[in-house]
Design brief:
Strand content: under 5%
Mean pLDDT: 83
Number of helices: 6
Structural class: mainly alpha
Low-confidence stretches: 12-29
Radius of gyration: 14 Å
Number of strands: 0
């Protein structure tokens, strides 16, 4: 039951993020490839195509490490690894989320800690 509530929350956030402000200037054409990569990853994530979503999140993180969605993508990448059964990699990435989250990203740090607790509770 607790996992279902968490998934509903994550899905709700996923639907709202593409609609919200990214923090980039509206007229900055250089952010378009970052948004495209992010949106592809999220669509695959929402469709539960974990392996394909993982690849796009890796691409985003490698190419756009200085963007406002970096911590968000780290969290989603960790969740993809969790769903693919690589719980050790998922936990490492959730810890990285906690380490990287600051200010407005505190939400993701809290979510990552909850996922760590859930994964460790399953073992």
């Amino acid at each position: 039951m607790r996992i279902d509530k968490l998934r509903v929350l994550v899905i709700a956030v996923l639907f709202l993020l593409p609609l919200s402000s990214t923090g980039w200037p509206d007229d900055d054409a250089s952010s378009a490839p970052a948004i495209d990569t992010y949106n592809k990853a999220v669509r695959l994530y929402e469709s539960k195509h974990w392996d394909a979503a993982k690849e796009y999140f890796h691409e985003y993180l490698a190419e756009y490490s200085d963007t406002p969605l970096y911590v968000t993508c780290l969290y989603y990448l960790a969740y993809c690894y969790e769903e693919l059964g690589d719980k050790n990699q998922a936990i490492l990435l959730y810890h990285k989320v906690i380490d990287q989250a600051q200010g407005g990203d505190a939400f993701w740090a809290d979510m990552a800690q909850k996922r760590i607790d859930e994964v460790l509770g399953e073992e």
